[in-house]
Specification:
The protein is built from seven helices and 16 strands. The protein is α+β, with helices and mostly antiparallel strands. It has three domains: 60 residues, Roll (Structural Genomics Hypothetical 15.5 Kd Protein In mrcA-pckA Intergenic Region, Chain A); 83 residues, Pseudouridine synthase; 142 residues, Pseudouridine synthase, CATH 3.30.2350.10. Strands 5, 6, 7, 8, 9, 10, 13, 14, 15 and 16 form a ten-stranded mixed β-sheet that branches. Strands 1-4-2-3 form a four-stranded antiparallel β-sheet. It is elongated.
């Protein structure tokens, strides 16, 4: 049952608990933390704290069986559209109804798809989501291929050095431009978010692109990056994302469900980067864009709208 492995250069500088969870994604966090806390997890033969930064070449001993090693063992042998491919990071266009991270149910997910694609190219199977998208949100997602670019890009997101623009079809007819500045508080038990003064700072700006009688196409600029931010803030503004069963407008959702809308029509459209160095230098000053999903394009076309480029 136990397994020993050598820390690879791609995991240099990453936290012990993060490395373990990326190699054994199906293990509950409580199991990982108990193994570290009790000393069942050993690093170079010694007990180590969960937040220790690792060094390439260290020996990691864990009380669990060997992780999946063969590409034939992937539950979902599927690929993804790659928008941009660099040495340290890929940008993929995530479809709807796809998780970003593996879960205990072994459902289809972005990370396993990227690892499968790496296996087809004979590459080391390492992939880490830089940021998150909801299961039914489509669009551009960054996947780091090692610990170094992961840390640099996550720092850039935290420092708001990466511009994030979304497209959404929303209920009603918003003003030409608007801003929603409302702290957001998450309830982990229900996985819901609400505007609450006790929450974390959250700022969203939007711009109207096209409008019909009861729905509109908007560009959303997420200044911060909170969970469910675009969906909750647009609902706060009185213009919830069409098809959003959690935060949306029941009457609009009901009407458009008959027309085939089965998910929140929200798309991660563009990421814009400031100065970057090293293996990420090729992204400096670059804006990457992902074409919207077909269901969103179809609704826009039915309303006589063209999608922005």
């Amino acid at each position: 049952m136990a397994h020993k492995l050598t820390i690879s250069p791609s995991d240099e500088g990453r936290r012990l608990d993060k490395v373990i969870r990326s190699i054994w994604p199906g293990l509950p966090l409580s199991v990982v933390m108990k193994g570290i806390r009790t000393g069942a997890v050993r690093l170079d033969g010694k007990k180590a704290p969960f937040d220790l930064r690792l060094t390439a070449g260290q020996e990691l001993y864990v009380p669990w069986e060997s992780p999946r090693e063969s590409p034939g063992e992937y539950s979902y042998r599927r690929t993804l559209p790659v928008i941009w491919r660099g040495e340290g990071v890929w940008a993929v266009n995530k479809p709807a109804n796809l998780l970003v991270q593996p879960d205990r149910k072994k459902q289809d997910n972005v990370i396993d798809r990227v690892k499968f694609m790496q296996s087809l190219d004979g590459l080391e199977e390492r992939a880490y989501a830089v940021h998150r998208l909801d299961r039914n949100t489509t669009g551009i997602l960054l996947v780091a291929l090692s610990g170094a670019p992961l840390r640099v890009l996550q720092d850039a997101f935290r420092e708001r050095a990466v511009g994030k623009k979304y497209l959404a079809i929303v209920a009603g007819r918003p003003d030409a431009r608007g801003e929603i500045n409302a702290p957001l508080l998450k309830d982990p038990a229900s996985n819901t978010v609400r505007a609450d003064p006790r929450g974390r700072e959250a700022l969203t700006r939007y711009r109207l692109i096209a409008a019909g009688e009861d729905v509109a196409l908007v560009e959303i600029d997420l200044i911060t990056g909170r969970s469910h931010q675009a969906r909750v803030h647009m609902a706060c503004a009185g213009h919830p994302v069409l098809g959003d069963m959690r935060y949306g407008a029941e009457d609009a959702n009901s009407r458009w469900r008959k027309a085939g809308v089965r998910r929140p029509l929200l798309h991660s459209w563009k990421l814009s980067f400031g100065p970057l160095e090293g293996e990420l230098a090729a992204l400096s000053g670059v804006t990457l864009a992902a074409p919207p999903a077909e269901d969103m394009v179809s609704v826009a076309a039915a309303l006589g709208w063209g999608m922005p480029r």
